[in-house]
Amino acid sequence: MQEMAYELIVGNNADVDRLTQEALTEGFTANQVLDDGLLNGMAIVGVKFRDNLIFVPEVLVAARAMKAGMTHIEPILSASGAEPAGTVVMGTVKGDLHDIGKNLCIMMLRGAGFVVHDIGVDSSPEDFIDAAEEHEAEVVGMSALLTTTMPNMGRTIATFEDMGMRDEVRIMVGGAPVTQDFADEMGADAYGDNAVDAVDKAKDLVKLLAELKSS
Ligand code: B1M
């Protein structure tokens, strides 16, 4: 498991692919391989990225290695009906084509057990609403990298309100120019500063929504 985590951290997808397969053949469960091997590695990648010890290219190669391992794990987990941590719809707002940060967040969320529906870039308020409805998402995540497109987060939140859907979802925003103050002003439920923070906030939001729905 340590070897698997190490090869993931250094982005060696061929070895992660082989070690995952070997571990499953040797009788380790999919959950053991996921938790003790792949997620342990990915957690270290997340911390190193947050602390500026590694950068976007290293995270992307680690993500590719994670994906290689997950191809063996996913079919077993979905057949076993394991409960996901939550369902998230994630996109970059209208007019904005930047997706590297969004994709990193998605990768970290998936690594943490969330089901994430990626609606891509240049996503209109209606795109977010349609996807949230279709997938019964608990969390809607919006990313923006341009000061000119940041207001589209507020417009999307307003559209959720207009459609009477604001209470159905919790909304998280993020992206380099976005701040906690801006998120508060727009009426978002959470602000994610980075991909690791996005995972923590998504966990909090799922819990909060469950509490609200049960009260
Ligand atoms: Co663009 N661009 N760009 N660009 N680009 C910036 C953002 C810019 C700051 C560069 C600059 O001038 N210094 C500037 C914006 C200025 C401003 O708004 N004030 C800019 C500009 C102006 C533009 C164009 C307008 C340029 C032009 O055509 N004249 C144009 C706009 C196109 C459009 O979107 N309509 C444009 C185009 C592009 C490329 C296509 C060339 C490319 C994007 C490729 C792609 O994404 N597939 C690009 C890039 C790469 C950048 C820079 C260099 C890097 C952005 C990036 O990927 N960062 C950027 C300058 C910079 O930031 N140094 C720049 C790495 C990424 C991991 O960080 O996205 O912040 P980030 O994500 C972080 C956190 O913010 C957080 O987690 C991530 C991981 O830690 N996070 C979330 C992000 N989303 C989150 C969501 C959450 C939670 C956390 O919850 C939902």
From TrEMBL:
Keywords: Cobalt, Metal-binding
B12-binding N-terminal domain sequence ranges: 1-85
SUPFAM superfamilies associated with the record: Cobalamin (vitamin B12)-binding domain, Methionine synthase domain
The UniProt record lists the keyword Metal-binding: yes
InterPro entries named among the record's database cross-references: Cbl-bd_cap, Cobalamin-bd, Cobalamin-bd_sf, Met_Synthase/Corrinoid, Meth_synthase_dom
GO biological process, one term: homocysteine metabolic process
Keyword Metal-binding recorded: yes
Molecular function GO terms recorded: cobalamin binding; metal ion binding; methionine synthase activity
One Gene Ontology CC term in the entry: cytosol
PROSITE patterns in UniProt: B12_BINDING, B12_BINDING_NTER
Domain B12-binding: 85-215
Annotated family: Belongs to the methylamine corrinoid protein family.
Protein name: Cobalamin-binding protein
